[in-house]
Specification:
Helix content is 46%, strand content 14%. It has a 6-stranded parallel beta sheet, with helices on both faces.
């Protein structure tokens, strides 16, 4: 008898987990061995249960799905993590894959095929949602997305802070912050702060309080 693919489900909505569990357990080759509702519990359960695949929501209470992925992979290098997200923003996809996720699919896709995605990452494949390859980027978006420092500064911009306030908080010069702000806008093809804030929130580039 072939061993089943053990799966840990991580999502902060119980109904979503219930739906995914039902979907996955319809396949005889898959067994859901645990559920977690936040990033910290996801890390603990993954280390304890050592599932073949962790289906990880990107936006979680506590630590994010991306940070949880990073921590799990640090402890369990062989872990296969499939990231589920509402957002198709290039920077988030890149961060998830750099953290160690083996797949990234959109949880709101009409044709979500979770079983195939789980089997794919369990087999060592990289699985990307068909909608992600390749959407029309903003005309100014550079191929490499935003850097970690740029995302950090973007978070402060969305919070309404001035260049001087951001500089004080991050121990940078105001001039350096101004350069980063200009680079962010050039990278995204946006030239007004209000538009930048809307874009960042809509595409999940920042964490809202």
């Amino acid at each position: 008898m072939v061993d089943k693919i053990s799966v840990l489900l991580v999502d902060d909505h119980a109904l979503v987990r219930k739906g995914f569990r039902r979907m996955l357990e319809d396949d005889a080759a898959i067994a859901v061995v645990g559920e977690a509702s936040d990033g910290n519990d996801a890390v603990k359960l993954a280390i304890t249960l050592k599932p073949k695949v962790t289906v990880m929501d990107c936006a979680l209470p506590g630590i994010s799905g991306i940070e949880a992925t990073r921590q799990i992979r640090a402890k369990l290098p062989e872990a296969a993590i499939l990231m589920l997200s509402m957002h198709s923003e290039d920077t988030l996809i890149r961060q998830a894959l750099e953290a160690g996720a083996r797949g990234y699919i959109l949880k709101n896709a009409m044709d979500l095929d979770l079983i195939s995605a789980v089997k794919g990452v369990a087999a060592g494949k990289t699985v990307l949602d068909p909608q992600l390859v390749k959407q029309d980027a903003l005309k100014g978006e550079r191929d490499s997305g935003l850097t970690v420092r740029e995302l950090e500064i973007l978070q402060h911009i969305v919070a309404g802070k001035s260049n001087r306030e951001i500089a004080t908080e991050l121990k940078l010069s105001a001039n350096t912050v101004a350069v980063h702000r200009a680079n962010i806008m050039d990278a995204l093809g946006i030239h007004k702060t209000a538009e930048l804030v809307v874009y960042a929130i809509r595409n999940g580039l920042v964490t809202l309080p």
